[in-house]
Amino acid sequence: MKKNGRGGIIDVQNLNQIEGNIIPFIPEGGDFYFKKGVEAYQKQKFDLSLKWLQKALSEKPENPLYQCQTSIVYTEIGSYHIANQMLTKVLSKYGDEYIDCYYLIANNYAHLGLLQDATKYAQLYLEKGDNGEFHQEAEELLELLDFSDEEDDEDWIFEEEDDLLVYQETAFYHLEREEWVEAIAVLEEMIALYPEFSQARHEYHYATFFIGGEREEAIANEEKYLKEHPDALFSFTNLAIFYTLKGNKEVSKYYTDMLVNIYPIHEQQKLRIAVTFAQIGLYEKAMDRFKMLRKSKLKGHPSYYRWYSTCQYYLGMEESAFRLWNEGCKQHSILSVQSPPWAQSK
Question: What residue spans do the TPR repeats cover (predicted)?
């Protein structure tokens, strides 16, 4: 990746097939670590690539090329929030010298299911790109984005976007570790500061349901939201889980039947449906969805390992279940201090 004559970043392929994205230019200072990181990336050894690139950044922490390539590796392992934090930092310092960052950010938002933000950044790239390297990809991304009316159009300034990313990453951290009290505290702040960011409300309802003592309130709030936004996917997943755990199979089946026919294009939403089926005990349906997921995109999600291994266990694949669980424990310390879900239910 290097700056082209238009001030963009070139030699990065379509981010929807991000495996081909490599930065061939080796800048001075930290070049050995950077080169090793690129070589590991080419071999799809993303954890090793990340270690080398972090060493390169320790030499030159403000190097925009190092930051951009590192963000691409974070995208590969499913750490989309961290990737966007790095890219936003590059934009805040270098502005339109690195216009391709707009497209990379749009692509990460699309993977996160934040369609409004993905649309905004893809459009910004097309406005600023002047037929840049990702012009066609950005147009294709906009065509793919089935943008709903769930959220009002909002022009976040970059400082607000950066703050929102920090909140998202913090909430994600606690939710994935099932640290409900900590998650609720963060989500309450998010809702107050960013009332139009609907995902925070869904995650808040989810966390309050599991905190204990507030299940009815969580259900009522989610149903109210769904009445106002009939196509809200996260409302379907939440209510399917809520009513199953309450023992109301009839209502749960209503939402489950709706989810059966939904196949999102974004990895985060795909994972959400797979985890939902696993949580409510529909292991065969969950297994079908987990098989569709790209593991390289979801290594940053403890829930991927927690619930995929659970599906394998209950479907008679015990050896595979323990192998995947142990892999997850190596990736995430929170899992290493827990028992597998199937052991907890005994």
Answer: 30-63
Residues 6+ apart with CB under 8 A from 58: 30
Output b/e per residue, 297-315; b: 16+ Cβ within 10 A.
bbbbbbbbbbbbbbbbbbe
Beta bridge partners of 3: 9
Read off φ and ψ for residue 61, nearest 5 degrees: -65, -20
**What pLDDT score was predicted for residue 290?**
94
Cα–Cα distance list, 111 to 60, 83, 87, 181, 286 (Å): 29, 12, 15, 27, 20
Identify which has the larger pLDDT, 162 or 187. Answer: 187
| Dist. CA 166–CA 155, nearest whole Å | 18
Output the six-digit token pair for 309.
């291994």
- The pair of structure tokens assigned to 40 is 């590991």
First-residue to last-residue Cα distance in the chain: 52
> How many Å apart are CA 96 and CA 85, to the nearest integer?
17
* Residue 159 burial by Cβ neighbours in a 10 Å radius (0-12, 13-18, 19+): exposed
Rounded Cα gap, residues 164 and 115, in angstroms: 15
Calculated CA dihedral for residues 221, 177, 107, 35, nearest 10 degrees: 170
Question: Do residues 66 and 30 make contact, with C-beta atoms less than 8 angstroms apart?
Answer: yes
pTM of the predicted structure, to 2 decimals: 0.57
Q: What's the pLDDT tens digit per position in 258-272? A: 898 888 777 888 999
pLDDT of 158 higher than 60: no
- The answer to whether 280 touches 311, Cβ cutoff 8 Å, is no
| Spatial CA neighbour of 18 closest among 82, 64, 66, 68 | 68
C-alpha–C-alpha distance, residues 334 and 177, integer Å: 6
Q: How many CB atoms lie within 10 A of CB 316?
A: 10
Q: Is the pLDDT of residue 222 over 90?
A: yes
CB 289 within 8 A of CB 260: no
Confidence band for 13, pLDDT divided at 50, 70 and 90: very low
